[in-house]
Amino acid sequence: MKATQRDYAQAAKRAGGRCGLYFFCGQDEAGASAAVGKILETLGEPGERIDLSGGELKSDPARLVDEARSTSLFGDTRHILARVAGEEAHDAIKSWCELADRGEVEDGWPIFIVATSATDKSRSAKLLIKRDDALVAIFYPPDLKSVTADVRAMADAAGMRLGGDLGETIARAAGLDVRLAQSEIDKLALYLDASPQSPKVADGAAWEAVGASTEEDGFMPLVNAALGGELGKLPSELARMDEVSLNPVGVALALERRAAQLASLASRWRAGSDMKQFLSQNGVFFREHRDVAAQLNCWSGGKLERLVPRLADLHRSLLANSQTAQLLLARELTQIARYAAARR
């Protein structure tokens, strides 16, 4: 089955319990990851999560099926989440399809694959699109309007009505990342003691009170310094990350999103075109034109194809090493900035 980010939930619901493998692809890794959470909510008790990387599946394709058919030590339920880049999971998916056709994974645990930089036209997706026991959904980079609507829906579910343009403010502060936006909504609901049974109105004052990030102390100045090769700015931005306690994972997510945006733009850019007009036509916020244009000059399409999976690996490393996350992030940002600086 095939779906988009708008109708994947309905497609999954129509499929009932037939789906054994969910392949979420496209440039919006945050949206795809959020979709995994929504699908898990409909499956009942998700149980233990087994994390797999693209490298693990590429070197050992049988690992995916083995994990899907294995049992936990205490017999609890489980699900498998694999974060891969491009076609890293192709051979593992092919193996799953062959065993599924023989009826050998009917009782297997659900598999979720978030495939950064893959599309619904990829070889991996083509293995699954015509199957009734698999769902392929593609997630495009969100725009401000759609994320604002998602933020308002999150607030409604949490028992809050957002006053004025607070929904848009939260969407911008989260860098259009629905996971970060959900985190901010959760903090705001906790601060207001809001719930569906006891709804509250959230305004700008409440937003400021919970210490929401502002544009001045947000992620993007650090992201822009790294991807733009601004070695003169990077030390002060790294110091600011420590001073204002920026979340390393949040910075990494913002970095992933910008890299995916650059990859998409690079594939459509034609030499000699008017850059400002090109960026406007492709939905880049006008205040970001200068930074995005400079970064496009530093990164070619081929280099971006290697950068995107590298950032996905960085994200996983930060989650697995929370105590040293800031150090790991600073080292990676420095390496990225040095590479970009050499091509400015």
UniProtKB/TrEMBL annotation:
The keyword Cytoplasm does not apply. InterPro entries: DNA_pol3_clamp-load_cplx_C, DNA_polIII_delta, P-loop_NTPase. It catalyses: DNA(n) + a 2'-deoxyribonucleoside 5'-triphosphate = DNA(n+1) + diphosphate. One of its GO terms (molecular function) is DNA-directed DNA polymerase activity. Gene3D superfamilies: 1.20.272.10. PANTHER family: DNA POLYMERASE III SUBUNIT DELTA (PTHR34388). This is DNA-directed DNA polymerase. It comes from Aurantiacibacter aquimixticola. The lineage of its organism: Bacteria, Pseudomonadati, Pseudomonadota, Alphaproteobacteria, Sphingomonadales.
